[in-house]
Automatic annotation (TrEMBL):
Every Glycoside hydrolase family 2 catalytic domain range: 272-587
Organism: Lysobacter korlensis
Protein name, entry field: Beta-glucuronidase
Alphabetical list of PROSITE patterns matching this protein: GLYCOSYL_HYDROL_F2_1
Residue ranges annotated for the Glycosyl hydrolases family 2 sugar binding domain, each copy included: 14-177
Similarity-based family: Belongs to the glycosyl hydrolase 2 family.
InterPro entries in UniProt: Beta-gal/glucu_dom_sf, Galactose-bd-like_sf, GH, Glyco_hydro_2, Glyco_hydro_2_cat, Glyco_hydro_2_CS, Glyco_hydro_2_N, Ig-like_fold
Molecular function per GO: beta-glucuronidase activity
Keywords: Glycosidase, Hydrolase
Length: 595
């Protein structure tokens, strides 16, 4: 789905700002499409949870309603008019006055509604958006709805981050021509000093299509006609980690000399390949340094914020990180566009987190089969397939995206995992044959027990030796970690990436004895992991968990959230940040020497 854009043939009105807001309890039996009665206003984009001081709003389970009036610009007569949401977490419904015009499940991908027939150009209408945060065993991510002893509905999530809900990204009103470009797909290869761009333009109607390729100075460097084809770029400037060189593919549908629709798509020319145990970008072994991140900040929750985007990337640049993973859901499109321009490498993940029903068995006592009719079942798998489709559809053209992670820490050691994952991995590869595919592995899925690893291109491991296991015993943790990594290398011979490792750390807690939670322990744990990484030749990268402290549901092992950040939630460095900076600014994009 193309991001709405202002072009010579398309126009755009941003609908962000303050919207009337109410929970379903506040609306009661009244129709939610009537003016909302609560007197509350909510900021868009932002999760609603932390905006208000009322715990009943913060922990509300079910539908909430956002409302505002919108006027269609009078000049849009004869165009098609759409309302587009960049996301609604987790289910969205869009009403134009009383009419339901769109419904969507999946909290981190966009959807839109064609409202042309309902509102003429120049007219005003009431736009009501419903958002539900309910999660069940058949949604992505999965969760459970329960009712407590007082009859209050509760949402249980199976992920270690707060269930922030609402409209966390922008809302748009946009116009497109009746005959228009609906989608563009660009893939690239390199032949000698030339780049080869393979493109496909999907358009409505039977008009002629032409494309031009324009470099960053605005000079045209290639052109072609037809809905699909190849365009060479002589003396191409490659997109490289650290150098986000981009081109625009300007697609047009034309009628003789008249341009009916125009859409410029930024793209980069680069190649990705997994060869043996190496991860190659532009034919050169790449070593990942960086983080698993979250979209998370004070007050906004998961609300997208360009200021945090710029600041987080500044901090990643300062520390020498060349990459991050969009743990545990697709991030705002602005993040990927910025990564494209900044030359930051991205592992792009679906929202399939929590497909593991006994991960916390030691704490909760719950020990259930994950792949079962009353747990992760065929309907969950269908929702998961749709999540993969929507992610690839949205993000396929971003050069920064070098790999798809289709899940985080599913129970891939349990019976049923192969039947569940094999079709999803196949689907991902069919939808995008150009990028490697992974599923991020958790500690119970070892080289001996894992049932899907042979289907994956890269072994992405989350490991907590020295934290959840061998707590406060880094010497033993070092031996266990190395033994396991060598086990993966020996069995599969594929690249191994540590997608999570780290320790909860209370900023400001110091101790000469370096106990868990102290800044010293975080430093010593990371240094121990790095010694091991540098001894394993198949190792291709390190993503510390997490970039910054983040909010979670209340739990006895969480102190106002997860504190494994290298930066605090307000982005101040802990001691570990300086240690990482020293290592990563030296390592660059190359693997540290194996000792
Ligand atoms: C991993 C999860 C991550 C958690 C982390 C932790 O992938 O979401 O936040 O552990 O416990 O299991 O800190």
């Amino acid at each position: 789905m193309l991001k709405p854009k202002m072009t010579p043939t398309r126009e755009l009105v941003n609908l962000d700002g303050l919207w009337a807001f109410a929970t379903d309890a506040m609306v009661g039996d009244a129709p939610w499409t009537a003016p909302l009665p609560s007197g509350l206003e909510a900021a868009v984009p932002a999760s609603y949870n932390d905006l208000f001081i009322d715990p009943e709003i913060r922990d509300h389970v079910g539908w909430v309603w956002y409302q505002r009036t919108v006027r269609v610009p009078r000049g849009w007569d004869g165009e098609r008019v759409f309302v587009r949401l960049d996301s609604a977490t987790h289910h969205g419904r869009v009403y134009v006055d009383e009419a339901l015009v769109a419904e969507h499940s999946g909290g981190y991908t966009p959807f839109e509604a064609d409202i042309t027939e309902l509102v003429p150009a120049g007219a005003e209408f009431r736009l009501t958006i419903g958002v539900s945060n309910e999660l069940t065993n058949e949604t992505i991510p999965p969760g459970e709805l329960t009712v407590d002893d007082l009859g209050v509905r509760r949402q249980r999530v199976r992920a270690d981050f707060y269930n922030y809900s609402g409209i966390a990204r922008s809302v748009w009103l946009h116009s497109v021509p009746v005959d228009r470009i609906e989608d563009i797909t660009v893939t690239t290869t390199v032949e000698g000093s030339a780049g080869v761009v393979t493109y496909q333009v999907d358009a409505t109607g039977t008009r002629d299509v032409r494309v031009r390729i324009v470099d960053e100075s605005g000079a045209q460097v290639g052109e072609a006609t037809g809905a699909s084809g190849q365009v060479p770029i002589p003396d191409v400037v490659l997109w490289q980690p650290g150098e986000g060189s981009l081109y625009d593919l300007v697609a047009e549908i034309v009628d003789g000399d008249a341009v009916i629709d125009q859409y410029p798509l930024p793209f980069g020319v680069r190649t990705i390949e997994v060869r043996g145990s190496e991860f190659l970008i532009n034919g050169r072994p790449f070593y990942f340094t960086g983080f698993g991140k979250h979209e998370d900040s004070l007050v906004r929750g998961k609300g997208h914020d360009d200021a945090y985007l710029v600041h987080d990337f500044q901090l990643m640049g300062w520390i020498g990180a060349n990459s991050f993973r969009t743990s545990h859901y697709p991030y705002a499109e602005e993040v990927l566009e910025y990564a494209d321009r900044q030359g930051i490498v991205v592992i792009n993940e679906t929202a399939a987190v929590g497909l593991h029903y006994s991960i916390a068995a030691g704490i909760t006592g719950e020990n259930r089969r994950t792949f079962a009719p009353d747990a992760i079942n065929g309907k969950t798998q269908a929702a998961h397939a749709e999540a993969i489709r929507e992610l690839i559809d949205r993000d396929k053209n971003h050069p920064s995206v070098v790999m798809w992670a289709i899940a985080n820490e599913p129970a891939t050691h349990e019976d049923g995992a192969r039947e569940y994952f094999e079709p999803l991995i196949r689907l991902t590869k069919e939808l995008d044959p150009t990028r490697p595919v992974t599923s991020v592995n958790m500690f119970m899925s070892t080289p001996e027990t894992d049932q899907v690893a042979d289907l994956l291109d890269v072994m992405c491991l989350n490991r907590y030796y020295g934290w959840y296991e061998n707590t406060a015993n880094l010497a033993v943790a070092e031996i266990r970690l190395e033994a396991e990594l060598r086990g993966w290398a020996e069995k599969y011979g594929r690249p191994i990436l540590m997608t999570e490792y780290g320790a909860d750390t209370l900023a400001g807690l110091h101790s000469i004895f370096a106990p868990p939670w102290s800044e010293e322990y975080q430093v010593q744990l990371l240094e121990m992991y790095h010694r091991v990484f540098d001894r394993v030749p198949e190792f291709v990268g390190e993503h510390v968990w997490n970039f910054a402290d983040f909010q979670t549901s209340a739990a006895i092992f969480r102190v106002d959230g997860n504190k494994k950040g290298v930066f605090t939630r307000d982005r101040r460095p802990k001691s570990a940040a300086h240690v990482l900076r020293q290592r990563w600014t030296q390592v660059g994009n190359d693997k540290p020497k194996t000792s």
